[in-house]
Design goal:
By secondary structure, the protein is α/β, with parallel strands linked by helices. The protein has 9 helices and 7 strands; from the N terminus they run ααααβββαβαβαβαβα. The longest helix has 28 residues. The model has no long low-confidence stretch (mean pLDDT 91).
């Protein structure tokens, strides 16, 4: 919960809300001071009120500008594109082969009968599809699927859901290994490394979203594995300039928040 709160706090929305809250507290303090010294306000009190009023205005303005910038497509795309450029090869043919590919979760929601009898594919489900492509292209012989659940006893886990998807994509069950306990990138790396060391494997192909790859790769290398990156789910493409792309959108804001989360995770890992 602490890590999630910190990630929210440094996100553009979290930062803007904190700035607005501080501005509101300053304005409230001005009103309280005015009521307390009504009729007795001297020069010092007046100067203090003016300073706090200006500070509140600056904070509110900074919150507005900060939120507008990261809610606009050009700023959000530039930051995400810069991270994705560090991810590794884009073409399947350029991925270096290994015995195992480790496929990270975070790409789908697990079944919740009766309202959702099947897994629900999310925007990062390219990870599982790309893993199947790697297998069929002969780049890997085994797929280690990492993904637990929010509740330790909940079944099926995300690893189970990814397995269902891969079976539908023609990957044989004999080529699939499940890691069902991890719920974060760091625990993905720790649990996968533990299982792979038992198999005398120290080199992997890592499959995850391009935006997530630099942080994920650092985590897996930190536990002693040699990583061949196989990024997928590239979000940023060349877009023609249109003035309306500077208008705020929830999609751009969400992309910025995920980029900030990746940068925070990399900094914390270092």
């Amino acid at each position: 919960m602490l890590s999630k709160f910190v990630a929210w706090l440094v996100s553009p929305l979290g930062t803007a809300l904190v700035l607005l809250a501080v501005a509101a507290l300053l304005r409230g303090g001005i009103a309280s001071t005015a009521r307390a010294f009504s009729g007795h306000a001297g020069d010092a009190i007046s100067r203090s009120r003016m300073r706090r009023g200006r500070a509140a205005q600056w904070l509110a303005g900074a919150a507005f500008v900060w939120l507008w910038i990261w809610s606009s497509a050009p700023a959000s795309d530039a930051l995400r594109g810069w991270i994705e450029e560090q991810s590794g090869p884009r073409a399947l043919a350029d991925v270096r082969a290994a015995e195992y590919a480790v496929v990270l979760g975070g790409s789908m929601s697990t079944p919740r009968p009766p309202r959702r009898p099947d897994p629900d594919l999310g925007m990062a489900s390219d990870r599982v599809w790309h893993a199947a492509r790697l297998f069929h292209a002969g780049k890997v012989r085994r797929l280690l699927l990492c993904g637990g659940s929010s509740a330790p006893t909940e079944r099926p886990t995300e690893a189970d859901s990814m397995r269902r998807f891969l079976l539908d994509l023609g990957v044989p069950d004999s080529a699939i290994v499940l890691e069902r306990s991890s719920t974060t990138t760091a625990s993905n790396a720790e649990q996968a490394a533990r299982m792979l060391r038992a198999l005398n494997v120290d080199t992997i192909v890592l499959v995850t979203s391009a935006l997530h790859m630099p942080r994920a790769r650092a985590n897996f290398e930190r536990v002693g594995l040699v990583v061949h990156p196989a990024p997928t789910d590239f979000e940023i493409v060349d877009e023609p300039f249109e003035p309306d792309r500077w208008l705020p959108s929830t999609r751009a804001l969400d992309g910025s928040a995920r980029a900030f989360k990746e940068l925070l995770g990399r900094a914390a890992g270092r």
